[in-house]
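Hi W.,

Here's what went into the run:
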Amino acid sequence: MISMFSVATLAILTVMGIALVRAFVGPTIFDRILAVNMFGTKTVLFIAVFGFLMGRPDFLDIALVYALINFIGIIAVLRFYEATQDTDGSEPDAGSGQ
Amino acid sequence: MIGQIVDLASWVLLVLGSLLGITGAIGLLRFPEFYTRAHAAGVTDTLCASCILTGLMLQAGLTLVTAKLVFILLFLLLTSPTATHALTKAALHAGLAPQLHREEDGS
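Here's what came out:
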């Protein structure tokens, strides 16, 4: 009988594919960041489910570290974008963005 | 008997989480503009993740694996809303105006 983990793995793979489509199509840069953020979260779930599918639950440490790094990456990209945003004079404010 | 109930519950949770993920992804693809897509992505991030991780927790029983799953779930539930909030704040700050009414009726 098809194990439930393979069903969840296939579903998560399709969700990641759709997120990638939005990342390529996305008109604004924020759609792309949103798609990458969703892709990262789904990768965390994929690692967890795939670990269970392969009977190796020690994959969960990798999933946890990936969740941490994904969050840091998203915030870093936003701060970087906000910092470069001010140089083309959108609106002068003191800090690089609070 | 208990084993079947736990398996059935984790089956239902995993399938429900997968369906939620797919609906969220379709929402991400088809919604008209950025802020609605942020809502669709935000919904799927939290609910789909909690359904799938809870389904896995049922499978793992009371072991160290479940503790790791709880940590992942707590971390995801804390950080994905924060990330989506930071993203929409940056979008608003960068001047991406939300589209408040549909073009056709022009109301």
